[in-house]
Here is the input.
Amino acid sequence: MRFPAEPFRIKVVEPLKPTTREERTARLEEAGMNLFKVPADTIYIDLLTDSGTSAMSDRQWAALMVGDESYAGSRSFYRFESVIRDLFGYKHVIPTHQGRMAENLLFNAIVTPGAIVPNNIHFDTTRANAEQAGAKALDLVVPEGLDPSHRGLFKGNMDVPRLDRVLAENKGKVPVVMLTITNNSGGGQPVSFANARATADVCRKHKVPLFFDACRFAENCWFIQQREAGWSGKPVRQIAQELFALGDGCTMSAKKDGLVNIGGFLAMNDSQWAEKITQRLILVEGFSTYGGLAGRDLEAIAQGLTEVTDEHYLEFRIGQVRRLAEQLMDAGVPIIQPPGGHAVYLDARAIAPHIPPSQFPGQAIAVALYRDYGIRGVEIGSLMFGGPDPATGEEVVPALELVRLAIPRRVYTEAQLAYVGDSVIEVHRGATALKGLRITHGAPFLRHFTAALEEVPAAVPA
Ligand code: F0G
Here is the structure.
């Protein structure tokens, strides 16, 4: 068997409007070559993110109908709370409208000036929220986690000896240690159970709480079951319960493994932290039994969290990402190794070595995928992370130039992903003709969202 096929059948369809290369070229011109600014209905396959883009199940749609919209004490909150308590095991459950609000509330409650927050690798919003609260955000992933060609099985692991040193040298300054499962910013790579346990042991030794950034916990636990000695045959749900029992709490964007389009939460054991966070929640999100969500959203998340640990689903889901990666590898397209749980990352520097980082090779590839094939990925390279260093004014060149193709959950069929594979292979074959880009208009912060660019004419051979 080549693959487990879709473990679902399609009950509702959303027609996709075909567009021509000419139309997409016009939209690109209007958008200043910025794929955040093209209208989404000119896209055939949208791989910008796996966040908030999942297809809900029939049971989730049915759950929306039984949502209780009471302002306080909603029945839907109690279901949400009980599903999360059962799976995550933490005492207090605090709903938020998405993951970054959970981060914002947590860090503002516990960070004091001069604090340090270690993580394997902070996702952008986690880093930004820790830093705006006054902390220094430290990334302590194992060294192979930063090597795109290393084929390790758990490249999301925390460098535990380094963490031990950081905690020993900064006594009293670390309010929490975070562990992101899977490690999105490092290519969606998983953390092993043994590494999570070692991280928890070091945290306990130094009396520092451990929180999971649990966005993609089910995908991580699937990798543990498949790859780590001693776990094969254990249900993913049980692995998740045992994993969370190592920690003291979590933040979660339910837009990933909650299988919903909006929502998130915090969960924790510490009652004082929970009380402080709830007070702030009421100020900025809403009452403690809805936290910025409708009752029906809480129902959909509760249902999504019961579906996401289904192993037929996970086998298909992770298999879909792996098959796209294999199709590309077979054709010699350079990608980050090994493929992670939610996305395939193209190595843009290797695909278009003739385009210097200052001309955004990743963006050039992303533009070609949209213009020629109607596919949207996202550049994660010098457009997203480059720019002048605020201190020195010198141009920052990030270590990697990537294009992330994130796969939404339960949304695209195998045929559609095979089309993505064929298209990337074509772009790779014709890569020498790709043109670099230059910024014509830019914002000082998060410039990738708003910048306008134009193609740099190819150099005329002498
Ligand atoms: N943590 C991780 C690991 C994430 O990947 C994200 C979001 C968040 C926190 C924040 O959650 O968006 O609900 O506020 N990642 C998305 C992505 C945006 O495309 O990777 P949020």
Observations:
- The pocket of F0G is lined by residues 49, 51, 98-100, 123, 125-126, 180, 184, 213, 215, 253, 255, 264 (CB under 6 Å).
- Residues 211 and 250 are 5 Å apart (CA to CA).
